[in-house]
Amino acid sequence: MVGVDEPFQGRAATLAERRKSTDAWQKFGAADAKKHYPVNIEETTTAGVRTDIITPLEMPAANRNRVFINLHGGGLILIQVL
């Protein structure tokens, strides 16, 4: 699997390495999810923070004036046990 499972030669990953690894893992998961939930994913930056704007390819008329905002608290850290 790409991403968080990749080894760091027996040492703790730097923040930059952890971000790169997590971004790769996210892209892998997003590609798989798009097979089941067809959406357009636009990568952008909002107030200096990398964000994704995800828009369904098909949307019921009743939902066209709605928005869902998911703000992750950043507390998720995956640890590799050596």
For the largest beta-sheet, the strand count, sense and barrel status come to:
2 strands, antiparallel
Query: Low-confidence parts, pLDDT < 50 over ≥5 residues?
Result: 1-5
**N-to-C series of helices and strands:** HEE
> Based on CA inertia axes, which overall geometry fits?
elongated
Oligomer description: single chain
Q: Level of helix content?
A: 25-40%
Number of distinct beta strands: 2
Enumerate how many helices there are, as a single number. 1
> Radius of gyration over alpha carbons?
16 Å
What does this structure look like?
Helix content is 27%, strand content 20%. By secondary structure, it is of the alpha+beta class. It has a two-stranded antiparallel ribbon with strand order 1-2. It is elongated, with a radius of gyration of 16 Å.
